[in-house]
């Protein structure tokens, strides 16, 4: 029996971070997937996760784990596929590290992903975005921070990992305000800022004070904000914004919804999906095409460019009531 723990440790400490250069968010996502997988396998084999062997991690167990995610944990197919991606990445790692497990690895790699629905993206209207940006109180230090954070998140269409990782030396306010974003897949981009966003950042830097961390947005204790911290701040201000704009209550607002709102507003303003892709830092324009499906602008142009077929004229004559009553039902 081959111990599994050394391979998992090498996969996360050496392969992902060092050899592949994966982002912290990717490493955290994969780590959570393996927490679930190893806990499931340990329960199945009545042992501890540290005592699992490589032979325990076979294709039938992975299939049962994926079914467990959907049935017991009620995860969507997209989440199930995301966990499978992490497992397959580990299987590819084992191909070269443990050649004797090649047959076992190939069976895992043969597990297909599930087809998923492609729903329309959720986004906030311009009035809803304005209500959210106006929710923080600019009379307190944290209110000034939250206002700047929401403005930057929306204006630049940042992923939450890009927002919390933004450093002070990556923000330039003069002569032309811009931010240097280190994006997903190590793709970097520089984005200009609106005057309003620049003013919000200047107000935050004036009260931010001297802190030891280089990140722009910090907690009340001077520590870098975490993903959960951003979600907490956003949730708090969504509740305040809902009082002014009740339509927000029908939407599930997350940090990524702000990014999608930026994308939709940019698409509606430019009518150019390539510019949206450039602004968001997508690796492929195919990732941006989801916004075309949710935007009516281009579809209305198509509709207006065509010629609608005519309606056949005619008038409806209702049947006689007495005869209608006598007809069998």
CATH superfamily of the largest domain: Intergrase catalytic core
Strand content: under 5%
What's the total number of strands?
3
Spatial extent as radius of gyration: 26 Å
**What do the pLDDT scores average to?**
91
The outline comes out as globular
The count of helical stretches stands at: 15
First-last Cα distance: 74 Å
For the record, the CATH class of the largest domain is: Mainly Alpha
Strand ordering within the main sheet: 1-2-3
- Uncertain spans: none
The name of the CATH topology of the largest domain is hpI Integrase, Chain A
Characterization of this structure:
There is one protein chain. The chain is mainly alpha-helical. The chain has two domains: 105 residues, Orthogonal Bundle (DNA polymerase, domain 1), CATH 1.10.150; 177 residues, hpI Integrase, Chain A, CATH 1.10.443. Helices cover 56% and strands 4% of the residues. Strands 1-2-3 form a three-stranded antiparallel beta sheet. Helix 6 crosses helix 10. The longest helix is centred in the N-terminal third of the chain and has 22 residues. It is globular. The mean pLDDT is 91.
Describe the secondary-structure layout.
Elements: H1 5-19, H2 24-45, H3 59-71, H4 77-97, H5 102-109, H6 126-133, H7 141-156, H8 160-165, E1 171-172, E2 178-182, E3 188-192, H9 195-208, H10 227-244, H11 255-270, H12 273-280, H13 290-294, H14 297-305, H15 321-326
Antiparallel strand pairs: 1-2, 2-3
Nutshell version of this structure?
56% of the residues lie in helices and 4% in strands.
